[in-house]
Write a structure and sequence with these properties.
The protein is built from four helices and 40 strands. By secondary structure, it is mainly beta. Among the domains are: about 90 residues, no CATH class; about 150 residues, Sandwich (lipopolysaccharide transport protein A fold); about 160 residues, Lipopolysaccharide (LPS) transport protein A like domain (lipopolysaccharide transport protein A fold), CATH 2.60.450.10. The longest helix is centred in the C-terminal third of the chain and has 7 residues. The protein is rod-shaped and about 150 Å long. One of its GO terms (molecular function) is lipopolysaccharide transmembrane transporter activity.
């Protein structure tokens, strides 16, 4: 300790004018980096204990750039420490720290601010925040650091403010300076704020640039409408990434998109989010962009889209796409989609779905009912422009309506706006209805339809159309034609079948009767069919041929009738065999 002037007082104390205390490393006194100097206007030192008291403009020179300012400070030579209960201000490269009460371990270069710590950091070198900046647009390339910026230039940049109610601990070693904020920590920059119980910041010892920051305990981060919650939030400067973790479930929430998972990784410059574990995602439709809500149905409800997965999720903001893997569930309105791989794209300006492509173990459940309520296949795709969903299967996809109906086809397209279904390629429909006779067994009244080209279903008029080499069979009856239309009744079962063209009908219940014509109507509840022809329909039964304008096949009563000037022709066995 030295000073400008020194006076010995009666109470064995020295009074020193402009005192200066210098502490040096015991092992290397010449090491300037470990030298600490304390100055003030007035000082006192106990002659016996060598303890000192400094007052008025106290300054602790921790290194060439870092200074601590306060009004008074007590110096203890035994443990080489200084202490004050007054407000302190610490300045350094790119930062200013204030607080109430301070203790400095000069030998170990460790410092504590007792409470109410507040730190201001330059945003250029110490950007703690991880969320992607809004409005940068797709294809944004982060600006490279400008090494030519002056201190005055950096002062114009947005600063980071950190506050805490508890102690701030400042550790200094050869490689890093570590600052630990405790109790009700708040870190803010512009519209972004992070709250936590504890915040640890690692600064490069030479450049004073932030390298890493870890917030822990009741973490809540917000930026505009975006909110993140979890146990810990760690930020890394090298990768410009932040990891949000929670032992139960971390949350990332915004107006139209929410993500829940134990761990999330945010890549700020890349505008990317990785979730390497199981989680869930919730999408809220943007009602402003739904024309139907503005016009036709103002009271319509547009429910959330919920996605759950057990593998991982990757979201790419610039590409507006997300990929989900393993045991995926997608819930939307009354529909459920299960698969093992899901690729989703979003609109450019919001998180309304633009398209999706699901593969591997595809299973769809639709609670709205109708022709089907469950579908199974290998792949399903949807896009907003056509508002159509396409289901593929190898060798075929399957549609089911509980245990009563099954449809198989290689490709099935669902047109949502037109409420239509198109099955392309060779397929079949099987319906286990109660059929014509309500007391019969279902295996006798079940209806099976096969086709070669396609099936079309219109849910508005409840009509199914089958094309090319169509065959309808029910118990002992068979009907074939080039095109067959089936109509659903009020109970959702096929109630009427109509076919035109090259019509052939066979009834085992009517003694093996056969009908040939150009038009056939089959009323299933009445168990009756009507055949017409051009010019006449033909009935073959028991070795005879009957030609008439109409032939009635009444399976319910076990009889056949006709009208329209019929005529008959007997068929000999030889002729019959020749016909066959």
């Amino acid at each position: 300790m030295r000073g400008k002037n020194t006076f010995l007082l009666e109470n064995d104390k020295y009074k020193i004018i402009e005192p200066e205390i210098e502490l040096m490393d015991d092992e290397d006194p010449g090491d300037e980096a470990k030298r600490v100097i304390i100055t003030s206007d007035i000082g006192e030192m106990d002659k016996i204990s060598n303890e000192g008291y400094l007052s008025d403009n106290v300054v602790v020179h921790l290194d060439k750039e870092t200074r601590l300012y306060t009004e008074n400070m007590q110096y203890s030579p035994g443990n080489k420490s200084v202490h004050t209960d007054e407000f302190v201000t610490i300045t350094g490269t790119g930062l200013v720290i204030t607080g109430k009460g301070c203790e400095v371990d000069l030998a170990n270069r460790k410092m504590w601010i007792i409470k109410d710590a507040e730190m201001e950091m330059d945003g250029v070198k110490n950007d703690l925040f991880f969320m992607y900046e809004e409005g940068l647009g797709q294809g944004h390339v982060p600006e490279a650091p400008d090494m030519g910026k002056t201190v005055e230039d950096e002062k114009t940049e947005e600063k980071t403010i950190i506050r805490s109610n508890g102690p701030l601990v400042f550790d200094r070693d050869a490689d890093f300076h570590v600052m630990t904020f405790n109790d009700n920590v708040e870190a803010a920059k512009g519209s972004t704020t992070v709250f936590s119980d504890k915040l640890v910041i690692f600064l490069d010892a030479e450049t004073k640039v932030t390298k890493q920051a870890i917030a822990s305990g009741n973490v809540l981060a917000s930026q505009g409408s975006k909110i993140a919650k979890g146990d810990t939030l760690s930020w890394d400067a090298n990768t410009q990434s932040a990891i949000l973790e929670d032992a139960k479930k971390a949350e990332f929430i915004r107006d139209d998109l929410s993500i829940y998972a134990a761990k999330m990784i945010f890549y700020k410059n890349a505008n990317k989010i990785d979730v390497p574990c199981a989680g869930s995602l919730r999408i809220k439709p943007n009602e402003k962009n739904i024309p139907e809500k503005k016009t036709a149905d103002a009271d319509a409800k547009y429910e959330m889209i919920n996605v759950k997965w057990e593998g991982k999720m990757n979201y790419m903001g610039d590409a507006r796409e997300a990929i989900f893997e393993e045991n995926i569930e997608v819930r939307r309105d009354d529909s459920l989609l299960r698969c093992d791989y899901l690729y989703v794209t979003f609109n450019d300006n919001n998180y309304d779905l633009k398209s999706f492509d699901a593969k591997d173990k595809v299973h769809i459940v639709d609670k709205k009912g109708g022709l089907w309520n469950e579908a199974v296949g290998d792949q399903v795709a949807w896009d907003a422009q056509s508002n159509a969903t396409v289901l593929y299967g190898t060798p075929f996809a399957i549609l089911r309506e509980g245990n009563t109906r099954q449809i198989i086809s290689p490709k099935v397209t669902f047109f949502e706006n037109e409420e239509k279904i198109l099955c392309e390629g060779k397929g079949s429909l099987y319906e286990i209805g109660k059929g014509m006779n309500r007391t019969e067994e279902t295996d006798k009244t079940g209806i099976k339809v096969t086709w070669l080209k396609k099936m079309e279903y219109d849910s508005v008029i409840k009509k199914a159309g089958f094309f090319e080499e169509v065959l309808v069979s029910q118990s002992g009856q068979r009907l074939s034609g080039d095109q067959i239309d089936a109509y659903m009744g009020a109970n959702g079962e096929i109630s009427k079948i109509i076919t035109a063209g090259n019509v052939y009908f066979y009834s085992e219940d009517l003694g093996g009767s056969e009908g040939f014509g150009t038009f056939f109507t089959w009323d299933l509840p009445k168990n009756m069919g009507v055949l017409t022809g051009s010019p006449k329909a033909e009935l073959r039964k028991e070795g005879s041929r009957t030609f008439s304008e109409k032939v009635y096949f009444n399976m319910a009563e076990g009889r056949i009738t006709w009208e329209g000037r019929p005529h008959w022709q007997l068929i000999s066995k030889e002729a019959g065999n020749a016909d066959k």
